Amino acid sequence: MSSPLPAESPQLPFPEPDAAAWHRLHPLTPVVRAGRRLLALVVVLVAVSLANQKQDSGQLIGDLVVIAIALSGGFVSWLVTRWQVADGVLRIDTGLIRRDSRRFPLSQIQAIDVVQTGLARVLGLAELQLRMAGGDSSRGGRLACLRLADAERLRRDLLAVSASAGQIAVGQGTPVSLVPQATTDGAASSPADARGVAAGLAGAQAGVPQFAVRPLFRVRSGRLAVAIALSRAGAIASAVIIVVVAVVAVTGRTAAIASFLPAALGLVLTVWRQFNAEYATTVAAAPDGLQLRSGLIQTTAETIRPGRVQGVRLVEPLIWRAFGWCRLEVDVAGPKQRRENRSEGQRLRALIPVGSRAEAMQMLSELLASRPEPGQRAPEITRIKAPLLYHFLGWGRDERYVVTSRGRICRMTTWVPLEKVQSIRWVQGPLQRRLGLASVLLDVAGRRVHADIEDRTEAEAGALLRQLPDLAAAARAVAR
């Protein structure tokens, strides 16, 4: 049991730092981690049981023992995994034969996501994912799984500790660690019970007014379904379905569709994953950044903190433009996503999966301090190289951002903060050299958004190559 704080310290629900203990994940973690494989294991178990009905019972028992050993691997992993938050550091230890001990300074946290797979939602659990600066998610901080309420509260507390450099002084500068309190029966309660370390809660007790979350956008489910059906993947899936139906109608044999099944299944899964990931997308402005929640079966809660956005892209497909729809995506600095428990691994984060242009402009005003237009068009000679794209190639800038545009069928407009530019490249292909053209490419820390100032005259490209480094340095100086 932890002893109370000295009388002269503020009466906050803190245990003493020495009371910090190592904690385990939820006991159902192995079941959630098994995820989709759990159903396959059940099918194998049933198949083995049916196959051994007429065989010796000893062989059946042996098969069951093999499956039980395979299932026990997840339990062993849970048993040897423990975690602790103390002194502004998240510590995760795991491994039975080969020990793996990781330390994650909370001051380097970029964001903390709360992810729920379908099975985790049924069990009321969630995974906490820490996004570290320059990290890799395969080596990142992952707490899977905690109770959903505990994961939400712990996330808020960790973000508050991160904002206060991992440590908050109480009273006369006494450091306080984020550790769970002990309950009356001696068992450790949720780590989120140490709510006093949260800067927002400390501010509330000090009389600082709390900021309300301001809703910005919520996707319409019907519009999302129609938009996906009108997307490239939806169009291909629809074409495959039409071909399959036509083949069956002409031949009268359902066996003829067997060769189409793998491709059809892959397309259906692609469309389903996008709908599942972007369903019920909501965006709200909060003191710690933009709060993004989405998902039908697997849900994700993420906070895009100020300064993480490396680029913003407005996508307007040809068919969508007839309805006045568009898509707004952001690229953020962060780790490469693992395959499991991810909703945006195949694409950028869609703040607006599909919405009106007015909604996109409102969201852009939240993301960008200014919004330059790509008013500088490509030179006339570009018609020879790109006759179809000529009218849609443009760029522009101000003191903080560079914007580029391209695309006839799928129009894309990209804004990149000058302060985020990592490198500036001069690119000139064989045809460009003959036409006296060149492109200037601006690279940022994100993975998929780049500002490509395409097909400018050599004189203009050379001037940009000389000016943009100084503009980027000035933007970084202002940002500091």
The average pLDDT score comes to 77
- Beta fraction of the residues? 25-35%
Side-by-side strand order of the widest sheet: 6-5-4-12-11-10-9
For the largest beta-sheet, the strand count, sense and barrel status come to:
7 strands, antiparallel
- The backbone outline, from C-alpha atoms, is globular
Radius of gyration, in angstroms, nearest whole number: 27 Å
Per DSSP, the total helix count is: 14
How many domains comprise the coordinates? 3
Uncertain residue ranges: 1-19, 165-210, 336-346
Count every beta strand, where a strand is a DSSP E run of 2 or more residues: 22
Q: What separation lies between the terminal Cα atoms?
A: 45 Å
Approximate helicity band: 25-40%
Provide the structure class. alpha+beta
